Write a sequence for this structure.
């Protein structure tokens, strides 16, 4: 008995069922993509909307007369006698200048006390002015324009974080101060400007979030990445090349292979404990040093570089090795002239991903003291590798712990900086790949 | 069969390579048993036999490419110009400069045509100047009958050539180091008939300067290009002799069965 012939123009039940299954599967895939893109979008929007304002900061422009009698009590004009004047004294000078300026411009102060008026300006302004005078002693006796930072609450008012209603309940700010700030802005004394200090300043204390910056964290992260790159690239590539191309395949190399795979899965905080024990307690290296951070991150990054590097070497067709050996190249020549250049794009990609992970790593750094509050910029290399520093992700962690909401904005801003660094690294990886691939 | 070999040996005095009592093991597997072959100077020797018979394995013994295979071991004696190539003092790298190899699949380096051919002379220091190197590259490409096709695009990547051109490029690369023996492992199996004909013609020309050993699946090819033929079966060398004799009056019934298409 033969099956009845069916027209090709009519889909049979089986075909319809298969087509429906395929359509369903496509819909699942599309939904997964849409969901992940949406989540990514939410993440980006939330970070950018919270963090972009960190790149702008409210400043108050006040003309300050640096009266020699007040600033240089020793009267000698040399740095030693200028140093005797404290930042607090400069702060008082600025507060007085602000009051005078308000009076000159006849801006109504709404019955605020002198102390409340002075509280508009960050304590950092006095320290900044002192540094400026110490840097250029000829300023003594002149009238200079000080672009002092406004306090975090005033800054928050212009950025929408602080409102008149919230100020009613806030012990640190009064609605009258906000009205004064409005008047000062209308008079052109106060404005939001690009916050270059966010990228260059060190961290600041709880009381002055407006002065807190990422300078030390950026330098610390940069130094650590130099250490990680300098150590893990040669060590990782050499280990991968040896294991893949030269090592005999026996139980011992199998053991090494399994252990490398296991190390890649070890939680990073374990590497922090190891670093604390080995580099700080045993080797006696200083705490909070980028060198130690870099060493710990190198340990963590190595297996994550060796594994993709080995995969890249394995992906090079064996015929290339045969070809080189067949015309009398040595094993090393065949590896370095032919196999390694072919594997380079894959190795580089693994390297950059490893570095990007290291850049974003927080946990091990907490254990080796990079979470410390560091005010001083680390020195230039090589000495700077041993100076205390902190790191970008640790700074984010740090700021999210602070009570003042102004630090939340800064933490989001720091995440944007971190993401920008990661984007730059990934772009570099793509460019390097293109460059290497174009050669063949 | 031993006495055939001995009788023939007395008639030739131009042996390039001599293999005696060669055994090859891959781990526990005895892949090649008691192989005795002579490779004559300025002669094409063909190794034929069904798949897995050990002909490629034996070919790879001749330049110690089996050293790169994990677990392979070779016993017996293989002499190149009277020197044992498996002697402890022999560096396989030096040996492979004298015994070149062309592989089944064309495998040019992902570099320019020029660099492909110049690589061997460079690593062996055969050229003292750029002009000399240019000379070696040109003569090698001419010997491989490829010069006229690529002389205008020496800087183009070798991987961009057609399959037949790639294989001739690999031959040019192998002859550039001026080897004494050229081993070819099924050099035409990945090529179309026209490219195959070109490579076969080339092999015949190469005979003027080198002794060539070719492994082939195609009996017609063996008959066309070789003067000597060795038939391998299940790890044994069944018969070795003049190509015409092997194809017209095989002594062993297995050889006859193979060339008439009854086994393999």
């Amino acid at each position: 008995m033969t099956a009845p012939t069916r027209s090709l123009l009519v889909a049979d039940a089986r075909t319809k069922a298969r087509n429906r299954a395929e359509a369903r599967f496509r819909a699942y895939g599309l939904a997964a993509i849409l969901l992940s893109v949406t989540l990514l979008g939410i993440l980006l929007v939330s970070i950018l909307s919270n963090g972009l304002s960190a790149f702008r900061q409210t400043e108050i422009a006040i003309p300050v007369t640096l009266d020699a009698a007040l600033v240089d009590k020793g009267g000698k004009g040399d740095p030693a006698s200028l140093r005797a004047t404290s930042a607090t004294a400069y702060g008082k000078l600025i507060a007085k200048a602000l009051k005078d300026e308000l009076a000159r411009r006849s801006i109504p102060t709404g019955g605020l006390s002198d102390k409340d008026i002075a509280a508009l300006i960050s304590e950092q302004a006095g320290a900044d002015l002192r540094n400026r005078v110490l840097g250029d002693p000829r300023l003594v006796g002149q009238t200079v324009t000080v672009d002092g930072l406004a306090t975090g609450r005033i800054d928050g008012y212009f950025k929408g974080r602080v409102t008149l209603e919230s100020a009613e309940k806030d012990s640190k700010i009064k609605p009258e101060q906000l009205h004064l700030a409005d008047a000062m802005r209308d008079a052109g004394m106060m404005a939001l400007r690009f916050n270059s200090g966010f990228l260059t300043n060190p961290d600041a204390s709880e009381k002055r979030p407006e002065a807190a910056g990422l300078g030390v964290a950026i330098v610390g992260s940069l130094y650590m990445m130099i250490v990680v790159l300098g150590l893990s690239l040669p060590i990782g590539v050499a280990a991968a090349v040896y294991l893949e191309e030269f090592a005999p395949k026996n139980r011992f190399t199998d053991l090494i292979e399994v252990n490398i795979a296991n190390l890649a899965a070890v939680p990073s905080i374990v590497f922090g404990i190891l670093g604390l024990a080995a580099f700080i307690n045993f080797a006696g290296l200083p705490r909070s040093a980028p060198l130690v951070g870099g060493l710990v991150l190198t340990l963590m990054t190595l297996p994550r570089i060796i594994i993709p590097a080995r995969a890249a070497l394995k992906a090079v067709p064996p015929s290339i090795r045969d070809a080189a050996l067949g015309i009398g190249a040595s094993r090393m020549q065949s590896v370095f002239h032919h196999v390694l250049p072919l594997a380079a794009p894959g190795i580089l990609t693994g390297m950059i991903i490893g570095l990007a992970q290291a850049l974003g790593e927080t946990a091990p750094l907490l254990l080796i003291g990079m979470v410390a509050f560091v005010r001083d910029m680390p020195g230039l290399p090589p000495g700077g590798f041993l100076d205390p520093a902190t790191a970008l992700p640790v700074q984010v962690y740090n700021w999210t712990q602070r009570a003042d909401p102004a630090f939340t904005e800064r933490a989001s801003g720091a995440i944007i900086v971190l993401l920008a660094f990661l984007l730059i690294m990934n772009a570099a990886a793509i460019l390097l790949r293109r460059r290497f691939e174009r050669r063949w | 069969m031993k006495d055939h070999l001995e009788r023939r040996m007395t008639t030739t005095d131009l042996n390039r390579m001599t293999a005696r009592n060669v055994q090859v093991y891959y781990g526990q597997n005895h892949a090649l048993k008691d192989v005795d072959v002579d490779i004559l100077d300025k002669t094409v020797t063909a190794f034929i036999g069904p798949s897995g018979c050990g002909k490629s394995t034996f070919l790879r013994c001749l330049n110690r490419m089996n050293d790169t295979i994990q677990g392979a071991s070779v016993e017996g004696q293989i002499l190149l110009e009277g020197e044992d190539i498996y002697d402890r003092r022999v560096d396989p790298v030096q040996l492979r400069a004298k015994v070149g190899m062309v592989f089944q699949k064309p495998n040019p380096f992902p570099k320019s045509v020029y660099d492909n051919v110049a690589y061997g002379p460079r690593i062996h220091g055969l050229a003292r100047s750029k002009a000399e190197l240019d000379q070696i590259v040109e003569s090698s490409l001419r010997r491989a009958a490829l010069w006229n096709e690529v002389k205008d695009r020496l800087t183009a990547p070798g991987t961009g050539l057609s399959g037949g051109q790639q294989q001739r490029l690999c031959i040019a690369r192998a002859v550039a180091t001026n080897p004494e023996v050229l081993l070819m492992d099924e050099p035409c199996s990945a090529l179309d008939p026209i490219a195959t004909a070109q490579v076969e013609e080339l092999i015949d020309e190469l005979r003027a300067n080198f002794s060539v050993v070719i492994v082939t699946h195609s009996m017609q090819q063996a008959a066309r290009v070789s003067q000597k033929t060795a038939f391998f079966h299940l790890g044994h060398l069944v018969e070795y002799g003049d190509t015409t004799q092997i194809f017209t009056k095989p002594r062993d019934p297995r050889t006859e069965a193979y060339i008439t298409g009854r086994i393999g």
